[in-house]
Amino acid sequence: MTEFLEFINGLLAYSTWEKFANLHGIFATLGLILFGVALALTPFYSKAKKYLSWFRTAVTLLFVDLFFLTLNGFLIYQPYRAGLPTSPRSIILASDRPWLHQIVFEHKEFLAFAPLLLVGVAVFMAWYFGDSIKGSRFNGLKKVIFWSLLSALIFTFVIAGEAVLVTKFAPVS
Amino acid sequence: MKIRNATPVINFLIAVSASLNFFWILNIVKTAAPATKGWLTLYAPVGPLSGLFIYSFLFGLVVFAILSRVIRSINQAGERRAFVIYYSSIVLFFLMVFPPIFETVAKLFE
Questions:
Q1: Cβ–Cβ of A132/B1 closer than 8 Å?
Q2: Which pTM does this prediction carry?
Q3: CATH fold label, A15-169
Q4: What pLDDT does B101 receive?
């Protein structure tokens, strides 16, 4: 019990921005799990209504997760770019690795625009077509769902990798 | 089971492509002409990134609304063209938001 209380006190001791930064990581991890579920269901959603229902749930949850991930990203971007000498951006720009902000972080912040839209395509198609997405007439459209999810996942991997590079050097606090 | 018309989905793909392309073009404009940073800053603590995201998203919505009114049906050749535009836009977006690339392009317009 004492250890548990220490754990709770430890969590509460994080600053507000650190809590948001941790939440950002949780949303990102949940997103990767949901990407896995959605992609694993892609070959099956046109085979049975049950799988279509699972697929719709997975992509919709993924979309909601990415929405909150992006929103949370905007929140913690504020302390990151604050005009203080102690903000992560100021620390990086004053260090011997300014490219961590100028290339890595800038690429990450711009790339973050795409996954929500690409998953939005999969969500729109899954709900719009329903169980009518069968037969060769829909092959091209089914490929669009798969490639939208896969490219959004690749973008998310790149964003996550770049985030790790930056936050390991100068975390938000 | 009702077979649905694919046209709204094709319009959606074109709108998403337009939004992605608008984003990187606007980003180049922002880099080449720093004066644009002022009207891109919709929320000061986030800076011009707020405008980049919101204007690009709104641009996609407007394109979708216009296409939904203008294009009511599309043939398979049109569908294939939309797929090519969509896939190319994803690849182009990935490359054009990479700072060494968009900064080089922006320098051409300075």
A1: yes
A2: 0.91
A3: Four Helix Bundle (Hemerythrin (Met), subunit A) (1.20.120)
A4: 96
